[in-house]
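So, could you explain the following?
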Amino acid sequence: MKVLMLSVSLIALASMAHSTAYADTEKIPCASVQRVVSDMGAIVLNTGNGQFDRLVRDGSFCSARQVTEQAFTVALDDRYCPAGLRCEDLVN
């Protein structure tokens, strides 16, 4: 049953991402959020409270003047889900 729920959540999240709608990470298990970030490479997600975050799989999705930092978000089953990476500008 858990596998079915995870699959349904992932399919819903992926279809939302492809239609440029924003998935609400608070309604999706952490593993599904992580998987869609990994599969898509870079994606903008609704991380709750009207906030959106661009998460990436690795630094190749950032500009040359950016570094990656671990990004955490609230997920259905994890209030501190390590969802992917965030591109941050280098500090001079």
